[in-house]
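Researcher: First entry.
Model:
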Amino acid sequence: MAAGDVLRTPAARFADLSDFPFTPRYLELQDARLGALRMAAIDEGPRAAPVALLLHGEPTWSYLYRRIIPAITRAGFRAVAPDFIGFGRSDKLARRGDYSYDAFVKWLGEFVTALDLKRVTLVCQDWGGPIGLRVLGEQPQRFAAVLAANTLLPTCEPPPRGVAQWPGALIENWVATAAAADDLPVSGIIAAVCRTPPAAPALQAYDAPFPDASYKSGVLAFPGLIPIRPDMAGIAENRRAWAQLEQFERPFVTAFSDSDPTTAPWAEVFRRRIPGAAGQPHPVIANAGHFLQEEQGEALAEVLVALLHRAS
């Protein structure tokens, strides 16, 4: 237990994780209301090399990238995979209401600044997109490329701005489900949206950050922060991020899976609106659901390493 309204998962919960031999590094962030918050990350590879910033989403953590990190470092690049506050080894806020979309953006922006990450290829899936692309919009000079996979950046604008500006019924139903819940089965959620459910040791690793429901306020809060109405927090900021993205001429690659109806239309939105997407390969990752890193990590790693070489 950290001071006040912050929880810290006991380290013993992360002992002997399956296929995850990486040593965590910790960074202390200062929150104006909550004080010091500890943010965890995997940081592997040469310090001076171009960086792959690997962002997870709901309800996963950096464990999601365990098959991708070795491919990055073997190719001579640096892999940085943070755990958002509320997830993984990072501190967790006790109250659902203490989380906000802006807070997640602020925490990640401070993380990127504190590590002084440069020549960054942003890898964003699920909430990694709405958070990471906002940070790119605020600090575009740090980013050399983007790999977007099963993600979105909603603004509640109708076509012709894109083909999927509204998140859609599947996301709205997920928002309603989380809002009504006092607990959520983390590993069960992950297994349900994979084409092939992960093996038991992996599912146990996804549950590891959450000894009980009191640690899951971030898991419960995340869905309700998706800006699905024009009056919601984040809409104006997302539109400003899009204004930056529509000037982003560095490589922007979409690598969505073939079996994720929740986000599938957004691949075309990114390709239509971002100049850096022109002329890039935009593969569809076969035989994967929402968490394509889990099911097809090697295939996604191949796309990423090729992009890192082009962006270097």
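Researcher: Second entry.
Model:
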Amino acid sequence: MFSKVFINSKNAYGRDIKRRVEKILDQLGIEHVYENLHDIDLAILIGGDGTLFGNQSFLECPILGINPGHSVGFFMTASNRDFENKVRRVLLGKDFFIRKFPRLETKINRTKIPYVGMNDVLVSPIYVRRILDSELRVKGRKTIERNSGILVYTPGGSHAYASSAGAKPIKDQKRFGVVGIAPYSGRLKRGDITLSEGIVSIKCLNPEGEVCVDGQECQVTKIREGDAVSVTKSRSPVRIIAFEKNFSGHVHCKKM
């Protein structure tokens, strides 16, 4: 079913699992690569959700996540106890499901950034101790917001960082939401906003700020006063391999 597999693992983490996965691939005569993503039809990621978040932006193929056991991994559906069996099942095309989860794409001044959010996109001041002043446009309405940051989140992300900020869980996979982090004034002080389509636009009014995708340090883009950040639903969902028919990813998830 799969002919070319991409393997990635957290540095010095899950090394033994990686070797055993490579051995299975060799036994089945399946090509595997570590860098070149051209023409791959399966990705095997070894680590926690952070490893997934750091790779999934560049993957259109199904993803099998293996958690070695020391990380938060709500989307990692294999463990150090059962990964060999599950890897073989997937490679042989037996008894698994592919679940699609919506993602968010972001543009800064109309230029698309390379990172796609599975959980959320955070627009924040450059320093956590400062307030973010911004102009928010959502559902055709413009407001001036003062808070510690604005979080745009997916249904999966509504159980993570957004939940800690007071957002309600989103059950409809076609919707996404916006919530303020520690809101001081503005529309978001009254609570979260959810929408099914359209663009969330956030204009930075601070001298400097940043945009962070899925809480990953390597997925931070600096912005300056006047920069316009626009977030919308991606047309391309992430495809996660699961072994339970009703797998939903974030059920009681905390931000990593």
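Model: Note on the second entry: The first strand starts at residue 4 and ends at 9.
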